[in-house]
């Protein structure tokens, strides 16, 4: 790869063959050299999981000037760790996750493999961005997101991000009217309910499929990502890797007297 250009490390949790990732490669190829290390199959919901009980494997699927694509047997976080040590050759200028098929707004950030790999990049001191579209279809339309993707990534390449901060970017599902713009906002308070679908095995045993419905607990709050997406805006939420609840520390100081 040409070391004079920015190096962009891309991964996802839908697998290396997913349309969202391959569209992302096309969107970002004008901005620098691209290294892809993505799971060899779907790993949605893997969050920051790492593989510790079996060996990892990866193989190079494609290599040409400015682009190298690798498939890894592990999780999205594994992919970033492995790429940094085995393939990058130098510290990437940015880590980009996505484009995910399905949104990762509100509390979904905690479950998302896309955001897991972004948090890993952030913990390694690399400016990192997660991209998700509110459309789970395999052939989802990513065209409206393209100019926003390039603009956000170029902005981060040019100006970086504060230490310990990454970005969670979500796009509404494509529609004829287009997007109304972009809003920098906070995570909505929300929860998932009815998360398991119960059915009966032919041999009489119950089993369960993960499902669920998301509930926005503050639907009228116009400063949240869930509100932005519901109203046709692209949402950008800065996410911190420091999860300390500083506002609670003083109230717990009495524990030091135990």
Could you outline the blueprint of secondary structure elements for this entry?
Blueprint: E1 7-11, H1 19-28, E2 33-39, E3 58-64, E4 67-72, H2 76-86, E5 94-101, H3 113-123, E6 128-133, H4 146-159, E7 165-171, E8 181-184, E9 190-193, E10 196-200, E11 206-210, E12 213-216, H5 225-230, E13 233-240
Helix pairs in contact: 2-3
Overview of the molecule:
The chain is globular, with a radius of gyration of 19 Å. The protein is α/β, with parallel strands linked by helices and 258 residues long. A 9-stranded mixed β-sheet has the order 3-4-2-1-5-6-7-13-8, with helices on both faces. It starts with 6 loop residues before the first strand and ends in an 18-residue tail after the last strand. It has one domain (7-188, 220-257): Survival protein SurE-like phosphatase/nucleotidase (Stationary-phase Survival Protein Sure Homolog, Chain: A). The protein has helices at residues 19-28, 76-86, 113-123, 146-159, 225-230, and strands at 7-11, 33-39, 58-64, 67-72, 94-101, 128-133, 165-171, 181-184, 190-193, 196-200, 206-210, 213-216, 233-240.
Short description:
With 258 residues, this protein is of the alpha/beta class. It has one domain: 3-Layer(aba) Sandwich (Stationary-phase Survival Protein Sure Homolog, Chain: A). The protein is built from 5 helices and 13 strands.
Task: Provide keyphrases for this structure.
258 residues; 13 strands; alpha/beta; globular; 20% helix; nine-stranded mixed sheet; Stationary-phase Survival Protein Sure Homolog, Chain: A
């Amino acid at each position: 790869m040409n070391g004079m250009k920015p190096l962009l490390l891309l991964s996802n949790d839908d697998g290396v063959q997913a349309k969202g990732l391959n569209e992302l490669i096309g969107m970002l190829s004008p901005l620098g050299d691209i290294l892809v290390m993505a799971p060899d199959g779907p790993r949605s919901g893997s969050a920051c999981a790492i593989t510790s009980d079996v060996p990892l494997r990866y193989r190079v699927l494609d290599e040409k000037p400015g682009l190298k694509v690798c498939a890894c047997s592990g999780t999205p976080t594994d992919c970033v760790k492995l790429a940094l040590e085995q393939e990058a050759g130098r510290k990437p200028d940015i880590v980009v996750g996505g484009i995910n098929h399905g949104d990762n707004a509100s509390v979904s950030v905690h479950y998302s493999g896309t955001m897991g790999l972004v948090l890993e990049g952030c913990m390694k001191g690399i400016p990192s961005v997660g991209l998700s579209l509110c459309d789970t279809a395999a052939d989802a339309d990513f065209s409206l997101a393209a100019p926003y993707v390039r603009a956000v990534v170029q902005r981060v390449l040019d100006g970086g991000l504060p230490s310990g901060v990454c970005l969670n970017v979500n796009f509404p599902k494509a529609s004829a009217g287009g997007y109304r713009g972009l809003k920098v906002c906070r995570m909505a308070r929300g929860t998932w309910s009815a998360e398991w679908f119960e059915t009966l095995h032919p041999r009489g045993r119950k089993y369960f499929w993960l499902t669920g419905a998301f509930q926005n607990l503050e639907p009228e709050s116009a400063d949240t990502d869930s509100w932005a997406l519901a109203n046709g805006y692209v949402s950008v939420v800065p996410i911190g890797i420091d999860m300390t609840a500083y506002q609670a520390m003083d109230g717990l100081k009495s524990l030091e007297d135990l």
